[in-house]
Write a structure and sequence with these properties.
about 375 residues, alpha+beta, D-amino Acid Aminotransferase, Chain A, domain 1, Methane Monooxygenase Hydroxylase, Chain G, domain 1, 4 domains, 4-stranded antiparallel β-sheet, 12 helices, globular
Length: about 375
């Protein structure tokens, strides 16, 4: 083991000594995970955290721990491809339908003297940590009363630093949508009825929630809801039982087409399986929602090729532009450090203070996608 790793392992061992959620497994078990590269460290101010890069025992990837806290990764939720049979297969009890919002997932929790946001993969998110106060101002009171709960929410809108897609009903900046409350350490999610009461009590913004429903007798109503969300350009839904039981998700035809539109120019940068899965989902959407066939047939070609062909014609670098606003300039510096850690190439175009916010315009440059298409245009071949 490298000397640096030994130092971090000693710190981890001191955490294990006092953290009951780490101690459910022997120290030797964690040491093996550490040696296999499952556990990575990062710091925020004077705090040193560890995160799980991969699933370990009962803890999913993205789990974060410090000396006295363990923030479980958000659980993996199956996605169904065919609504009618999928509902019956997984949901044999009353359930709620919650809008699945196009954004990125963070978990918010109070760590000592500050409320921090962690991404699905377990990184600290400087942007969400900076901006939660604008959208969830009652969080200090919430954590004062419920220190052992974690708030799971979606950060969505056109001015976020990670996702180029956003809900069409958010025209500027972002918003935070609380979709779950999770128990610290165990990862247990609160029943929907308790969640609704807490959302109301603390006036927390949340996705649209409807129900309860039954998988058989309410199928036609659910089908109409999916079509409505498709026409309103929404991502999809998550089906959630009242208490214990399987959760499942389903996305609209619109969402699948939008994903293809966004990623198709960046082939070479992404796993081709990403594209294949969206095509499979879209084909099964059409098998169940015949009403949208003509719409999809007419739009899928332009969606896939228009932007790509423009980029190829102009021989541009493949890149995306993001515009984001921060309350503190130091939060943007922390975001740049995160990009460096994640090996994301960023070029800052413009910064200015405006209306009390530090506003930034930057581009993410995708060299692999640029080389992928450039090599083809230059006549290079490959064996396939």
């Amino acid at each position: 083991m490298k000397e640096g790793n030994k130092e971090f392992l000693e710190i981890f061992e001191s955490y294990w000594e006092v953290n009951p959620y780490l101690r459910i497994y022997p120290l030797e078990d964690w040491e093996k995970a550490f040696e296999k590269g499952k556990i990575w460290s990062f710091s925020w101010g004077d705090k040193l955290f560890f995160r799980l890069k991969k699933d370990h025992r009962l803890y999913p990837a993205g789990t974060v721990f410090i000396k006295n806290l363990l923030i479980p990764g958000y659980p993996h939720i199956p996605r169904i491809y065919f609504l009618k049979t999928g509902l019956v297969r997984y949901l044999s009890y009353p359930f709620y339908v919650e809008e699945k919002i196009e954004g990125y997932n963070v978990r918010l929790i109070k760590v000592e003297d500050e409320i921090l946001a962690f991404t699905r993969r377990g990184y600290l998110c400087p942007f969400a940590t900076d901006r939660w106060i604008d959208f969830l101002p009652t969080l200090p009171q919430f954590f004062e009363k419920y220190p052992n709960l974690i708030i799971c929410c979606e950060v969505a809108g056109p001015e976020n630093p990670f996702v180029s897609e956003s809900p069409y009903y958010i025209k500027e900046d972002v918003n935070f949508f609380v979709f779950d409350f999770m128990e610290m350490g165990t990862g247990k999610l609160l029943p929907v009825s308790k969640k609704l009461k807490l959302l109301e009590k603390f006036k927390l913004n949340a996705p649209e929630i409807k129900g309860p429903f039954h998988p058989v007798k309410d199928y036609e109503n659910l089908r109409k809801l999916i079509l409505k969300y498709h026409h309103e350009k929404r991502e999809g839904v998550v089906f959630k039982p009242e208490g214990e039981g399987q959760r499942i998700k389903y996305v609209t035809p619109f969402s699948n087409m939008e994903d293809l539109k966004v990623v198709f120019p960046y082939l070479g940068e992404i796993d081709p399986h990403f594209v294949t899965l969206r095509l499979i989902r879209l084909a099964l959407n059409l098998a169940e929602f015949g009403e949208v066939k003509e719409e999809v047939y007419q739009t899928i070609g332009p969606i896939l090729f228009e932007e790509l062909l423009c980029s190829l014609k102009d021989e541009k670098l493949f890149q995306e532009t993001f515009r984001v606003r921060f309350k503190k300039e130091s939060s943007f510096s922390a975001l740049l450090a995160h990009f460096r850690l994640a090996k994301i190439t960023v070029e800052v175009k413009k910064t200015e203070w405006k209306d009390g916010y530090f506003c930034v315009e930057f581009t993410k440059i995708y060299p692999k996608a640029t080389y992928f298409w450039k090599s083809k245009l230059e006549g290079w071949g490959e064996i396939d």
